[in-house]
Amino acid sequence: MAADERPAPPRITLDEVRAAHEALQDAARPDTVARQRKRNRWTVREGVSALADTGSFVEYGGLVRPAIAGMQGAADGLVMGTARIAGRGVDIVAYDYSVHAGTQSANNHAKISRMFDHALQNRMPVVCWLDGGGARPHDMKVEGRGSAETFVLFARLSGLVPTVAILPGRAFAGHANLAGMCDVLIATRASAMGMAGPPLVEAALGLKLTPEEIGPSDVHFAAGAIDILVEDETEAVEKAKRYLGYFGPAEPAGEAPDQTLLRGLVPENPRRAYDVRRVIAGLADKDSVQELRGGYGRAMITAFARLGGRTVGVIANQPMYLAGAMDGPACEKAARFVQICDAFDIPLLVLCDTPGLMVGPDIEKTGLVRRSARLLAALANATIPIMTVVLRKAYGLGYYIMGSRPLSPAILLAWPTAEYGGMGLEGAASIIYRKELDAIGDAERRAAAHRERTDELKRYNTALEVAGRFGYDDVVDPADTRGILLNTLAGLPPALPRTGRKRTIEPY
């Protein structure tokens, strides 16, 4: 047979290509959509569409099939590709719970590794939509399953690009591992997460539990694993977009709240509590504050905000909890947040009102010696500008850590309510004047003498007295603080351009 008479090799038609792509879409999967609606949940493609700017999503690997012959599953349960969010390029990876419970397979491991490598090479932020039950057991014998680079590649993105996890439902095993490596974890109240799902828990421990009994969202929020807890997918997407916006270019200067209101937020009575969130909101551009890890380390607030359109990180003692004293969770929470700010050259605002580190035998059992040192080390080694405002108490090692002079803040301000001391002034009076006080036999006279000595120390350590010894750069009207911070930021040189990673971010 002549060469030109041989049968032509089989070729696919354009219609076949179109049909293959159309089969991936929700319109071609009405049963899947119906199941998600019954669960009051979005489909994975609805999630991706909500994240991405209209028309910007370019899918990678949509035609990939499960590795096991005969198994079906659109995109092998992983929708991924590049997109733009608010005009900025990102990589999106989204597990589809409707395909084999969103399990991680040999082929979708190869897909997601490809995406993480893409992010690594192109310095692209990554958003992970994590909804799945861990590894796919069917793939246990598939060659290459055990050598997947997924988690190593993702770990290498730490500190290089922002990484965001969204948990709309269940995230177990490998999905939980990816969630734990993200800079920020956003989860719905109905979500559940754990290092192993119900089958493995039952096999290992003999306990028959639902996913929600293993790792409900409220448990993870209190433990500090979840950064932002939301009601549903709509709010999760809004928070993810907002978070990524802090790492983009400066926005036009936002509206300033009424600055005169700041004068009345900090009580003059040092024993009265107040919510430092009101101070943060009062200094920042209106509606620009996003708190992180609000359920954990409650003696410290960590948040992103904008000042004059520019992103700043904020760490602030919270007098509503432990009177602002710093315990282990508060220090760890703040230390990690400082690492995020430092990795991405975001200036830091420190609001100090602390009686110091927590003390006593119970607190020593928590390892505070190491955990407080972690925050000090993070601040001492950060190369970002630090701006400190002492709101009220600035006592002991707590103040030393919270942006004191040795940390070389770009500016160190105090409000008129500021109090300074190497320790709480009442305790200091008891130590300094112990002999004098012990010599007074009458209890009422001794208490009166103690108050007199304490007041004497307070007069010596008022904001103006400390400023007179150059302990602060200035004592300012609270209503003038925002303007001073804005001018300080404007006068600082921009961060040097980065071609690589500045530092990694510890997962916890």
Could you walk me through the main structural features you see in this protein, from its secondary elements to its overall organization?
The protein folds into three domains: 41-245, 2-enoyl-CoA Hydratase, Chain A, domain 1, CATH 3.90.226; 259-418 and 462-491, 2-enoyl-CoA Hydratase, Chain A, domain 1; 425-461. Helices cover 36% and strands 17% of the residues. The strands form three sheets. Strands 10, 11, 12, 13, 14, 15, 16 and 17 form an eight-stranded mixed sheet that branches. The chain has a seven-stranded mixed sheet with strand order 1-2-3-4-5-7-9, with helices on both faces. A two-stranded parallel ribbon has the order 6-8. It is of the alpha/beta class and 508 residues long. A hairpin with a 2-residue loop joins β11 (300-307) and β12 (310-317).
Q: How do you describe this structure in short?
A:
The chain is of the alpha/beta class and 508 residues long. The protein has helices at 14-22, 30-38, 44-51, 106-122, 150-155, 174-181, 198-205, 211-214, 217-223, 233-245, 276-283, 328-343, 361-364, 368-381, 396-401, 425-432, 434-438, 443-460, 463-468, 481-491; strands spanning 58-60, 78-85, 88-95, 126-129, 163-167, 170-172, 184-188, 192-194, 228-230, 290-292, 300-307, 310-317, 348-354, 386-395, 411-414, 419-421, 474-475.
Key descriptive features of the protein:
36% helix; 20 helices; elongated; 2-enoyl-CoA Hydratase, Chain A, domain 1; 3 domains; single chain; 7-stranded mixed sheet; 508 residues
